[in-house]
Amino acid sequence: MSFPKKFLSSSFLSVIDQGMLSALNFCIGALLIRLVDKDDYGLYGQLYAGGLLAGLIVDSWIAGPLTTVASAVHENTRKLLLRRYWQRQIFWTVAMGLAAFLIVEFVPAATHHSNKGWLMAGAFGLYVIGNGLREYGRTVGFIQSDIHSVLRQDLVYVAAVLAGMLSLYLFEVIDVAHVFIVLAASSFLCALFGRHRIMDRTATQVSQVDAEDADILHEHQETIRGHGRWAVLGVIVGWLSNYSYVYLSGAWLGLAAIADLNASRLLLMPIPLAVAAWSRVARPEASRLMAEHNWSGLRKLTIVSILGIELVVFAYVGAMLLTLPWLEAYVIGSKYSGLGPLIMLWGGYFAINSVRTIGTSWLMSGGAFRSMFFLGTVTLILVVLITYQAIPYWGAAGAIFALIAVELFEMVVVWKYILPALQKRPKPQLPA
């Protein structure tokens, strides 16, 4: 199969997979919007953002740099890397889950001073662990271009979550803690289902590991650790830039404001999830093109990616605005009426964010994690300053205005300055 057909086929399957996960997240959010009060839904949004940070930290330390390097090496070394980092993924995921438990239990601000007890903290900690284990199975599938196994694994996850949520609904015990318990249990089941696949796909014969391979493996691990240090710092400041609106609006306006922002964003969540699906497929290919200094190939990939994603963004936002009266009546309810202006603002944000995400994906593929960290630090300072000025004047909408302004700044810096500088670097002599 030629590159364009193989890439489009993988992208199509990845979009189906991510669309399935997006629909699941939408259903969970819509159910909580209908059945719990605004403060509880705001708390769910705040914890969900925290869980995303925990997953991103582990991913940036292990899976992100691993994707950058593993896509450019020969099969035996790649399998060795994937097997060894599976063990490290388990360790760091458990560590993040324990940290999440302690923060939710003993830091009042983590739950906006809500007294939720040990059940909430334990459920959230287990969710962080289960989600991290499940994500590594997906990472292995994407690195090895085995999108079918990723799709099968996620089908198990979606089926388990739906069964769990149906049980909560029938027994009338739907609340934030029990939802995280269902998500955690489903993730553990999915990770267990995918474990055999990971072991099989990364199996190597000990006799194949000669002295030369051992040296290559050592060099690649040093590369991964070097990338990982800057990747972790970069993802933390990046997350703070993207999700500071949750905590800043909560501090100024309360959990109800978080609920309004998250409800309007929920309706558009298929957009970033579709972009994430594209990224998981495109990054290994971009790593290969950049390792070969095939800039014309990267340029073609960039044009196709931007046009395709922006088409999805504008079509989807238009569809949401046209169907908003029906959604307010039958999905999100009267508690969240008048979300049209926020949806339009989120649409503008995601249109800019998608183009910026393509650029930062190329930076990750090229191993420019240090540049991403310094850029993220600047954008974090800007978003806090702008949000501080905007929220008192525009309320919840001010948080989105701040994000849009910072996304524009970051998009310009990435495409005009950092990526051109990356293309001028000498071609690396990567062992193979």
Automatic annotation (TrEMBL):
Give the transmembrane ranges. Answer: 12-35, 47-69, 90-111, 117-133, 154-171, 177-194, 230-259, 265-282, 303-327, 339-359, 371-391, 397-419
Q: Which InterPro entries match?
A: Poly_Biosynth_Transport
Q: How does it sit in the membrane?
A: Multi-pass membrane protein
Alphabetical UniProt keywords: Cell membrane, Membrane, Transmembrane, Transmembrane helix
What compartments host this protein?
A: Cell membrane
- Chief localisation class: membrane
| Signal peptide feature range | none
Q: What is the recorded name of this protein?
A: Lipopolysaccharide biosynthesis protein
According to its UniProt entry, this protein's organism is Undibacterium rivi
